[in-house]
Amino acid sequence: MKKSLLSVSAILAASALTLTACAQAPSSTPSASGSTSSSASSSASASTSTSAANADFKACMVSDSGGFDDKSFNQTSYAGLTKAKADLGIQTGQVESTDAKDFATNIQTMIDQKCNVIVTVGFLLSDATVAAAKANPNIKFAIVDDNPAGAAGLKNFKALVFNTAESSFMAGYLAAAQTKSGKVGTFGGMKIPTVTIFMDGFAQGVEYYNKQKNKSVQVLGWDAAKQDGQFVPEPNPFDNIAGGKTTATNLVSQGADILFPVAGPAGQGALQVAQSSNGQVNAIWVDTDGCVSAANFCKSIVSSVYKGMDVAVFDTIKAAQEGSFSSDPYVGTLANAGTGLAPFHDFDGQVSAETKSELEKIKSDIEAGTIKITSAAQPK
Amino acid sequence: MWKDATVNEPVSSQQAKPAPSHQAPSHQAPSHQAPAPQGLSLRGITKRFGSLTANDGIDLDIVPGRIHCLLGENGAGKSTLMNQLYGLLDPDEGEIFIDGTPQKFANPKQSMAAGIGMVHQHFMLVDVFTVAENLVLGREQGPFGTLDMRSARRTVIELSERYNMAVSPDSVIENLPVGVQQRVEILKALANDAKYLIFDEPTAVLTPQEIDELMAVMTSLRDEGRAIVFITHKLREVRAIADDITVIRRGAVVGQPPRDASEQELAELMVGRSVSLKVAKQAPRLGDTRLVVDHISVADDAGTVVVDDASFEVKGGEIVCIAGVQGNGQTELAEVLLGLLPVLHGEVTLDGRSLTRLKPKEVLRAGVGFVPEDRQHDGFVGTFSVAENLVLNQIEEFSRGGMLDLGRISANAEQKVQEFDIRTQSISLPVNSLSGGNQQKVVLARELSRPLSLLVASQPTRGVDVGAIEFLHKRIVEERDGGTAVVIVSTELEEVESLADRIAVMNKGRIVGIVPAGTPRDVLGLMMAGIPHDEAVAATRATPADPNQEDA
Amino acid sequence: MTESPTPDRTARRPVRLARVDWSEITVTVFALLLAFVIGAVLMVIADTEVQQKFTYFFARPGDALTASVDKISTSYGALFRGAFGGIGPITNTMAQSAPLICAGLGVGLAFRAGLFNIGGQGQAIMGAMFGALVGFKLTGLPLVVHLPLAILAGVVAGGIWGGFVGFLKARTGAHEVIVTIMMNYIAGGLLSFALTQALFRRPDRADPIAPVVAWNATFPRIAGTQLHLGFLLALVAAFVVWLVIERTSLGFRIRAVGSNPSASATAGMSVANTTMVTMALSGALAGLAGVQVALGPMSGATPTPLTAGLVGTIGFDAITVALLGRSRPLGTVFAGLLFGALHAGGLVMQGTGTPKELTTVLQALVVMFVATPMLVRTLLPFLRARRARRAVPAVASSGGLA
Question: Which of B75, B365, B426 is the closest to C13 by Cβ?
Answer without folding.
Answer: B426
